[in-house]
Design brief:
This protein has about 375 residues and is of the alpha+beta class. The chain has helices spanning about 10-15, 180-200, 205-215, 225-240, 245-255, 285-295, 320-325, 335-364; strands spanning about 30, 45-50, 50, 60, 65, 70, 75, 95, 100-105, 110, 140-145, 255-270, 270-280. It has three domains: about 1-110, no CATH class; about 115-330, no CATH class; about 335-364.
């Protein structure tokens, strides 16, 4: 018996393409076509499993047309004589297709590995007061990617913005600005834990709880809304997104990621089946804003910029670079709006608490 797991898009797509006629070996046949002319076959409906024919060959259902019998009774393809008319092994009328089938056994899908960037760790020597004695990076980031809708995500958008889950953890000390990378590192750890649990058979809810527990270890619990994080993880796990998709999705929705660009991450015979979007994700929203507006001021970033979508360049500022920044030329209104909204929300909560406490008093 053949088993399919929904989170494994290729298996889900190709299950059922095994030969159904006696004596014909199983095969995996895939076809793809750029129907919307955007240069890839990564959109829904542009990839399909091929159908076995009565002659033991394969036919692509994408763009297929019903054949028409001529005066002599011979089947003719309305798309042109260069396309052969074939009859599906499962029965039905003869069809022809302009798209060819690819044997994935001899032409496997080539997939780029996800960016392997753990982020800058606080790994240097410190003095008795805990001050760094080595090189300091201020507002350092982590390179990561998420995948929009495509073959390997079962055409679910793993880059979708699902709203703000994490609060900006920006504090007043240099340690909160430099190499500790606490919030983003916590999200990275949590998403890996959730995905690992899901892969070995945990339910989406159980995996999300494991991820939430991993996130809050060593992290200020006020930095993240746990209930929203759990709901987020359940949703993206059920969509077939992996741990890095989840990580970027959570940080991006909270305003902590800079998008570098998209690239083809999975292809077959040169046909792109899945795109990915490279990001630099930071510990805070303020860090992302200052990186975006500070880098253009520094010559040291002129040549490399943000790197490439496949290899984002996410290093932090050196102390000398940070001191050279002209903050009067930066627009921090996006961050100020967050502070004002948060302050207003907190005032409303405080007022409600005071009213509730008063009502409790007068009832006694």
């Amino acid at each position: 018996m053949t088993h399919c797991r929904l989170s494994l898009a290729l298996v889900a797509l190709l299950c059922g393409t095994a030969a159904v006629m006696p004596g014909i070996a199983s095969a995996q046949q895939l076809c793809a076509a750029d129907l919307n002319g955007n240069g890839d076959a990564a959109d829904e409906g542009e990839t399909a499993s091929c159908q076995l024919t009565t002659t033991g060959g394969w036919t692509c259902p994408i763009g297929a047309a019903l054949c028409v019998a001529d005066a002599s009774g011979t089947q003719q393809c309305p798309l042109g004589p260069q396309y052969a008319c074939v009859t599906p092994a499962s029965g039905g009328a003869a069809t022809c297709s302009p798209n060819t089938c690819i044997d994935t056994s001899s032409n496997p899908i080539q997939t780029e590995p996800a960016v392997d960037d753990p982020g800058v760790e606080a790994d240097g020597a410190v003095d008795a007061d805990g001050h760094c004695l080595g090189e300091i990076e201020i507002f350092s980031g982590r390179a990561a990617r998420c995948r929009p809708a495509g073959l390997l995500t079962t055409f679910q958008n793993c880059c979708k913005d699902r709203g703000k889950i994490i609060k900006d953890g920006m504090g007043g000390s240099i340690s909160s600005m430099s190499t500790k990378f606490a919030i983003a590192k916590g999200v990275f750890t949590g998403m890996k834990a959730a995905y690992a649990a899901f892969q070995v058979g945990a339910t989406a809810g159980q995996a999300a709880s494991a991820g939430a527990n991993a996130i809050i270890v060593g992290l200020d619990p006020t930095s993240i809304t746990i209930s929203l994080a759990i709901n987020f993880m359940i949703e993206v796990l059920l969509q077939g997104c992996d741990s890095q998709d989840m990580e970027v999705g959570m940080l991006k929705g909270s305003g902590m990621c800079h998008e570098v660009g998209s690239y083809c991450s999975s292809k077959i015979l040169g046909i792109c089946l899945q795109k990915s979007v490279g990001h630099c994700c930071f510990n805070t929203k303020l860090g992302r804003i200052i990186q975006e507006q500070g880098r253009p001021q520094l010559q040291s970033f002129n040549a490399v910029g943000w790197g490439t979508p496949k290899q984002p360049y996410c290093r932090g500022f050196t102390p000398e670079e940070f001191q050279a920044l002209d903050f009067s030329k930066m627009d921090l209104s996006e961050y100020y709006e967050d502070i004002e909204a948060r302050a207003q929300s907190q005032i409303q909560i405080d007022m409600k608490d005071k009213i509730d406490a008063y009502q409790q008093t007068i009832r006694q």
